[in-house]
Amino acid sequence: MTAVASGRFVVIEGIDGAGTTTQAARLVDRLQADCVDAHLTREPSTGPVGVLLREMLTGRHAPVDSTTLGLLFAADRADHLQREIEPALARGAVVVSDRYYHSSLAYQGDDSTRDWVRVLNERARRPDLTVLLRVDPDEAARRRAADGRAEELFDAAETQRRIARNYERVVEELGATERVVAVDGHQSVDAVADEIADLVRNLREPTPADHP
Q: CA–CA separation, 160 vs 16, rounded Å?
């Protein structure tokens, strides 16, 4: 990979089992191999609010409702930006995040709460590129089982199908104002990594108008 614009923010999204963690790590490894300053991060973050959220997702502190989760994810995102993402971008790194506010829209943003979740995240920095890994929910469930993952809060089959539908709405609704690209996540891990690398390679240099 060559000629990657510096100071760029890339997000990898998808339902649980789509491969977001694998592909985010692959992209950073590839960038670093090409001597690009690349920073890998994730949401929930490793900050104080993110740690609490990860505990909640594994069933601790139950019961928890979608309103609480929506507020906590937005708070974690604000902390994540000021603590980790913005400093890395300021030094010229390519920041790759495993999930961002698109996850909030997909996981907490049902018909009755979608506008509210969007308002909570209005002040969050917009990524330069968001990649949605499209994977059938049944296939994603098989992958989670094969990996031996512990069951988490959103892992029920119907919940994952609802989230997959919401992600399609994210692509449709945000596509007019952001660069959101869907990639077929059923391809081999290497083929998906190659496709994402091509998308990142084609990112143009930032201009002052990109992030007012």
A: 8
